[in-house]
Amino acid sequence: MRIAVDAMGTDLAPTTEVEGAIGALRQLGPDLEILLIGDRDQIEAEIGRHEDVPHDRLSIVHASERVSASDSPSAVLRKKPDSSIVVGLKLHGSGEADAFLSAGSTGAVMAGSLFILKRLEGVDRPTVGTTIPTASGPLLMLDAGTNVDCKPQHLVQFAHLGKIYAQDLMKSENPRIGLLSVGSEPEKGDETTLATHALLRDEPSLNFIGNVEGRDVITGGFEVLVCDGFVGNVLLKFYEAAAGFLMGTVGRALKEQQARVDLSDLMKTFDWAEYGGAPLLGVNGVSIICHGHSPPAAIQNGIREAYNAVRSDLIAHMRRELAATTQPSEETT
Amino acid sequence: MRIAVDAMGTDLAPTTEVEGAIGALRQLGPDLEILLIGDRDQIEAEIGRHEDVPHDRLSIVHASERVSASDSPSAVLRKKPDSSIVVGLKLHGSGEADAFLSAGSTGAVMAGSLFILKRLEGVDRPTVGTTIPTASGPLLMLDAGTNVDCKPQHLVQFAHLGKIYAQDLMKSENPRIGLLSVGSEPEKGDETTLATHALLRDEPSLNFIGNVEGRDVITGGFEVLVCDGFVGNVLLKFYEAAAGFLMGTVGRALKEQQARVDLSDLMKTFDWAEYGGAPLLGVNGVSIICHGHSPPAAIQNGIREAYNAVRSDLIAHMRRELAATTQPSEETT
Question: Does any CB of chain B come closer than 8 Å to the CB of residue A193?
Answer without folding.
Answer: yes
